[in-house]
Write a structure and sequence with these properties.
alpha/beta, globular, 375 residues, 3-stranded antiparallel beta sheet, disordered C terminus
């Protein structure tokens, strides 16, 4: 049995149970379940939280990214630059538009797109860049935005793991032309089901997303353009409204726990998460690197600590994406990260004793190893 889970969604629910139950009851009493009052209210509140002009609720983070791309006019024949070290959903969403993903290597300190690798990947067919703010830390956006302006490219931020993260004092998701958020239950802001949102400051893009998410309807049953069915339901919106009120507090707690990990693991030789000076990390995951990752993971599992590898195989080496033409060695930093990263438990309801227990176990395991050098 796992003594320390990677996340504890029941504990989160128990902490805000009365508020969540009241929100659910409100929806049930109204009897309106799709794109109603709760969705509209959540869209306003989420946009205000981010400092953005518009938000549109959709059915998942993958759909959010797909719709954001489509709203920017991305389609067949276009190339979209994205990192290979990411959830496969990022690349799946690009392919769902008919465009071709071009995978680019990461900088290991942030685990995000390396601007120096992005520039040479731009071709006459390139139409967009998708920076993924991985693990809760924003990508280095300034040089990416400069490249985008120089080459007239859209910047679509993938914020699935970065709710509340800051870059140069401004919320992730408000820097590019448009952004996609996921509300999968384990996210910093997670629904009790699935959901997502598209965020932008551009009224024309916002209008296109609202049309695209429901068959291109401006009026019922009349399609202005060809869209899909991607609607956030009222129940999830009501729950998200409750959780949004707690997000900053939860993120602050994640940072406290991350600082404790930093202190307790400082002398281990592990590579710990970076905290760039231009960013405020929200620690969706606390990710370490270790050359003997699988041995450490197995040891922690044996001792009741759940860990996860985000992500064990970079997209360019996954069987489904062999047709993209990459091979082992194509993107070395992404491949090194995939071989070494390990996500330790971190969630707002976790206590300091659990962090200390995980850290003691890591020390015990490493004491039995000859300390290897970390690349």
């Amino acid at each position: 049995m796992t003594d320390i889970p990677i996340v504890d969604l029941k504990a989160q629910y128990y902490g805000i149970r009365a508020e969540v139950d009241a929100a659910i009851a409100r929806v049930l009493e109204r009897g309106n379940f799709v794109l109603g009052e709760e969705v509209a209210a959540f869209e306003r509140e989420f946009a205000d939280y981010l400092g953005a002009a518009f938000a549109a609720g959709v059915d998942s983070g993958t759909s959010a990214l797909q719709l954001a791309l489509l709203a920017c006019g991305i389609g067949r024949g276009d190339e979209v630059l994205a990192p290979s070290h990411t959830a496969v959903a990022t690349v799946a969403a690009i392919e769902m538009t008919g465009a071709s993903p071009v995978l680019v290597d990461i900088e290991l300190s942030r685990f995000t797109l390396d601007p120096e690798r992005v520039a040479p990947a731009i071709t006459p067919r390139t139409r967009a860049i998708v920076p993924v703010h991985l693990y809760g830390c924003s990508a280095d956006l300034d040089p990416l935005l400069q490249l985008a302006r120089r080459h007239n490219l859209s910047v679509i931020e993938d914020c699935a793991q970065a709710h509340g993260a800051l870059y140069r004092g401004q919320k992730a998701g408000t820097w590019g032309h448009i952004a996609a958020f996921s509300f999968y239950p384990t996210k910093n802001l997670g629904a009790d089901g699935d959901g997502g949102a598209v965020v932008t400051n551009d009224p024309a893009l916002a209008e296109r997303v609202r049309l695209l998410r429901q068959y291109g309807w401006r009026e019922r049953f009349v399609s202005i353009l060809k869209g899909i069915n991607s609607r956030l339901d009222e129940m999830q919106a009501a729950i998200l409204r409750v959780k949004l009120r707690h997000l900053d507090r939860w993120n602050a707690r994640r940072r406290e726990l991350a600082r404790l990990y930093d202190e307790l693991l400082a002398d281990t030789g592990l590579t710990l998460p970076a905290q760039p000076k231009d960013a405020v990390h929200v620690y969706h995951q606390y990710v370490i690197r270790h050359p003997q990752r699988e041995r450490l993971k197995a040891f922690l599992k044996e001792n009741g600590v759940q860990t996860i590898v985000h992500y064990p195989v970079p997209v360019h080496l996954q069987p489904a994406y062999h047709d993209l033409g990459y091979s082992l060695g194509s993107l070395p930093s992404s491949e090194l990260a995939a071989a070494q990263v390990l996500s330790l438990p971190v969630y707002p309801e976790m206590d300091e004793d659990a962090i200390s227990q995980v850290s003691r176990l890591i020390h015990a395991h490493l004491a039995d190893e000859t300390p290897p050098s970390i690349g």
